[in-house]
Design a protein that fits this description.
The protein is about 65% helix and about 0% strand. It has 41 helices and five strands.
Length: about 800
């Protein structure tokens, strides 16, 4: 090379050059500045070659420019393929880029293979690219790392299984000792194949995929098993260990079975029903012991229960058939009965429970008998002809109430719910409190159902005590703070906020409960986040939101759970009553009453108190006789139940019925005054505000406007403090009607929601409902709801009376 002709000297893969040639190249490089000659060399990061000192000298020369190359783009890969193979199809280009990651060395190797094998660059050869490309890349890398420290190949294979990990796990999976693993990792890092920070991982995932696909079945089995075994010794890694075991085949050892069940537990808690089922199904074929197999089948059935109740029944029946000990038979029967009850097979549920003890007679005693009979009693409430609760709970017959045989938290929780639904509030409270006392350290079944023992406290207006238990019970009872338990905690918290009059918090808590994965929910009876949210939205005067929530859960109207169906009809009936749709409201409310009456739930007004709402609806619709009968029934129920909230709402309904009927008993305190006094003493803020509003409305009708304004101002203040916007706007409207000045009543456009203001503006401008719905992109039904609310808030009877100046 001489003269004046510019020349470029290219040297590929410099570390592979022999020592003699490398020395000659180094000597030549010192004379380059005298001639029009350029030297370009390529080297993989971390590869020192025959003489690291010479390479270091070359790279440190002041005239040397170092370039770090990224993978080629799809477009560049396409041009390379076009030059070598002819015009390629887009799928072929994408496949080559995906397999190689755009790394030039891998692309070149694949192109050479295509030329040798005579592939055409068309879509029909895409699969060949995938199969051959990965194997080729794996072979190339393994050949290149052979020059590294001993064990580097083993580490590379282990990392292809782990993908991301810490150095300790990489060492354990590869089978290398600490020093050998450190040397191998350092070598791979220096070559640019992996990175160490923040965790060990491949620099290009395409490399990991290629190495993994090149593993034999035996290598994969061995490496995944090692990884799982190492992870099992780490806290919080059960699910990751389970994922590795899913990649193995054949029999699994006892530690692996334990790991799979633990992984399923965490997956179910996170709402991943598919993952949980996969873990359990992997363990099931190799669990042969009767009770152990029953436990795995029970977990599988429980996991499937939320997603596919009928498939769950099959697994649960198999679990029950496999169970050998009385303890496991009771547990499998209880779960099977729950599943049967969900599909509305209450009689079959009772048979599944009853048949457990019949072959064994008095041998089913103590805590097992307590749990079994308690579950029978609970499911009996779901039948049209319930069994004798007292006789059911005394099993064996000589067992007396309060005996140690029934002193288990789960059984006592069920007993407290049964007593509450049967109207025995004192028994319900006693058993609930006893269950809470026994819960720490002794919960045999740490499921969200234990939390339901708090419900009788809520229904009996013991709200402070219930709030305290909700804070402490999940931790002392050993309940996991995720999955079904967490959903139940949030639902109970939302219910407490609603009863206490914290409307905004009730909305927030119920939204969070609904937002959790449905799969994470271990659904128990009596408390439903969607129902709490719809009621809270109604109290906050968001009728559109309340109706939307109920529409999303309309299938619940025919739920096999009678209490869930009754809850739906009560909430929809209340919404329709507030929207002025009295006939349809009464249909829902009486449907709720029939469901409760046929399942004994009608004896617990603390749970679903439908009669006062129905009485008010009848009274306002002119059905005075029906209103009075229902109000008196509600008052009798309230006296039996004995709590301030139910007594106050019943008295209010009775006062409305008598006022509109034009009768008074003249024998004592006005029911409306009595209702307000009872609710004020118990500090039931929302119901107190509602009763004060009713009192103000009544006194205005009696032309006692000064007294009316006094009650209405208090109602307005309390409602605003609670966030009960609906009561607030009605109180403001009544204040205006009673003669209060505008600034005293608070009546203005600000009392309407933003959606209502838009509808009011359009209606005041003379637009029809259809035109409004088209302009605002809502249904005509929504427009009608908004107008009904606007008329009520403004105290007007039609759109012609909507003041135009309010919306400017």
């Amino acid at each position: 090379m001489n003269g004046e002709t510019p020349t470029l000297l290219l040297v590929d893969d410099l570390p592979m050059v022999d020592i003699s040639s490398l020395r000659e190249l180094a000597a030549f490089s010192y004379r380059l500045h005298r001639h029009p000659v350029g030297l370009a060399v390529s080297a993989s990061t971390g590869e020192d070659g025959a003489d690291p000192a010479i390479l270091a000298t070359l790279s440190s020369d002041p005239s040397c420019h170092r370039l770090v190359m990224d993978g080629m783009t799809v477009g560049v890969v396409g041009e390379m393929l076009r030059t070598r193979l002819g015009a390629p199809d887009a799928p072929f280009v994408s496949a080559v880029h995906h397999v190689t990651g755009g790394i030039p060395m891998f692309v070149e190797q694949l192109v050479r293979a295509a030329e040798t094998l005579r592939w055409r660059p068309t879509a029909e050869f895409v699969d060949e690219v995938g199969r051959f490309g990965s194997l080729s890349i794996a072979s190339t890398l393994l050949n290149r790392v052979q020059t590294g420290p001993p064990g580097t190949e083993d580490m590379l294979r282990a990392l292809s299984v782990l993908r991301t990990c810490d150095p300790e796990l990489a060492a354990a999976t590869s089978g290398l000792d600490h020093n050998a693993a450190s040397d191998a990792l350092r070598s791979l890092q220096e070559r640019g194949i992996i990175r160490i920070r923040p965790c060990v991982a491949f620099a290009h995932q395409v490399v990991a995929t290629s190495i993994y696909q090149g593993l034999s079945a035996h290598q994969r089995q061995d490496l995944h098993t090692r990884a799982a075994a190492s992870l099992c010794d780490r806290a919080g890694s059960a699910r990751e260990a389970g994922l590795h075991l899913l990649r193995t085949s054949g029999p699994v050892s006892s530690w692996a079975l334990t790991a799979l069940r633990e992984a399923a537990h965490h997956a179910r808690g996170d709402g991943d029903l598919t993952g949980a089922s996969a873990f359990l199904e992997r363990a099931l074929p190799y669990t042969t012991d009767g009770d152990a197999r029953a436990d795995v089948l029970l977990e599988t059935g429980t996991t499937l229960l939320l997603a596919d109740p009928w498939a769950a029944l099959s697994r649960l029946r198999e679990a029950h058939a496999s169970a050998e000990s009385i303890e496991v038979r009771v547990r499998t029967a209880s779960t099977l009965a729950d599943a049967l009850a969900r599909t509305q097979c209450h009689d079959a549920a009772l048979r599944a429970l009853s048949e457990v003890d019949e072959p064994h007679g008095p041998s089913v005693t103590g805590p097992h008998a307590a749990l079994l009979r308690a579950r029978i009693a609970l499911h009996a409430l779901g039948t049209a002809d319930p069994v004798d609760i007292d006789a059911t709970m005394r099993w064996p017959p000589e067992t007396a109430p309060g005996d140690e045989a029934v002193e288990t938290p789960h059984a006592l929780v069920v007993l407290s719910l049964v007593a509450a639904m049967d109207g025995a509030v004192e028994d319900a409270l006693r058993q609930s409190r006893r269950a809470m006392e026994l819960a720490p350290g002794s919960v045999a079944d740490p499921s969200p159902h234990v939390l339901l023992g708090i419900l009788p406290l809520v229904w009996a207006d013991e709200l402070d005590e219930a709030a305290g238990q909700l804070v402490t019970l999940p931790e002392v009872a050993g309940l996991p703070r995720y999955g079904g338990a967490e959903v139940t905690i949030r639902e109970l918290r939302a219910l407490l906020h609603l009863r206490r009059g914290d409307i905004a918090e009730a909305v927030s808590s119920s939204e969070r409960a609904m937002g959790m994965s449905e799969g994470a929910r271990s659904r128990g009876p009596f408390v439903y986040s969607w129902a709490i949210l719809s009621e809270a939205a109604l109290e906050s005067d968001d009728l559109e939101r309340a109706e939307s929530v109920l529409a999303d859960h309309s299938a619940v109207a025919d739920s096999p759970d009678p209490w869930e169906a009754a809850t739906f009809h009560l909430r929809r009936g209340h919404l329709r009553h507030q929207a002025g749709e009295t006939e349809s409201a009464l249909t829902d409310l009486h449907r709720c009453g029939r469901l409760l009456a046929s399942h004994r739930g009608g004896r617990c007004p603390g749970f679903l108190d439908w009669k006062p709402i129905a009485a008010e609806a009848h009274a306002l619709h002119g059905h005075h006789g029906s209103a009075l009968d229902l109000a008196e029934d509600a008052l009798n129920d309230a006296h039996r139940w004995g709590t301030p909230r139910t007594l106050g709402t019943a008295l209010r309904a009775l006062g409305i019925a008598r006022l509109l009927m034009g009768v008074a008993d003249g024998t004592g305190e006005d029911p409306l005054e009595h209702a307000a006094r009872v609710l004020e003493e118990a500090n039931h803020r929302v119901e107190l505000a509602r009763s004060l509003l009713t009192l103000g409305w009544a006194r205005r009708r009696q032309n006692r406007k000064s007294r009316a304004r006094e009650h209405l101002r208090r109602a307005l203040a309390i409602a605003r403090a609670c966030g009960a916007r609906r009561i607030a706007v009605e109180a403001a409207s009544e204040l205006s009607a009673s003669g209060a000045r505008r600034n005293q009543s608070g009546l203005s456009g600000d009392l309407l929601t933003s959606s209502e203001r838009r509808v009011a503006r359009a209606a005041a401008a003379g637009m029809t409902n259809r035109a409004i719905s088209q302009q605002l992109f809502v249904t005509q039904r929504t427009v009608e709801l908004h107008l009904t609310s606007i008329y009520r808030k403004l105290g007007i009877s039609g759109r012609s009376q909507i003041p135009t100046h309010e919306w400017e």
